[in-house]
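hey m, so remember when u said the tokens were messed up on ur end? i reran from scratch. heres the input so u can diff it against urs
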Amino acid sequence: LMHHYTLTVTREVDEQYVSFPFRFELTVKLPAEALWRQWEDTHADHRSSWLWPTQYSQPSFDSWPPKKGDLFILTYQIPNPHDPKKPKKNATYQFNVLEWDAEGRVFSYRATDDHPFLKGGGTVTILAIDGNTSRLVWEGKYQHITGHPGKEAQGDVFAFFLCSFFTATAQNVKKQVGV
């Protein structure tokens, strides 16, 4: 049995952080090279993307092609989890590129030190299953400071956002290439 996608987001709390380890695995009926090309195209110009759910965020980089030390920039439209009729919150945040390996099909990033509430980051890997099918694996951990009700609430909204974003990504793939 092959799942189209699986998503886990866990909420863990210690004295310093509320942490959200996450893992998203998506099976795609495309060769790994073709899926990586779509990943690259998405980041070179998000307007051309069928993969990235641009209704939630728009990715860009401060230089192309990206390399370690560059900035990965995300402009978000974050839905209100308590009232979907309320306007989405617009925000732009930057992340440090830790790795962009086109040959190995790996992208790693982490929040910049001056990010207002987030620590951590993630890694995206595209793996070949066979000549016609690949798997996108996006995993990582985001951390928010504890002991500050506003920042903790912001973390919980971010977990809601992650689930919405990854579900929309899976729906985009299903619509474009099937499952």
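this time it looks ok to me. The CA atoms of residues 33 and 120 lie 28 Å apart. if urs says something different then somethings off w ur setup not the seq
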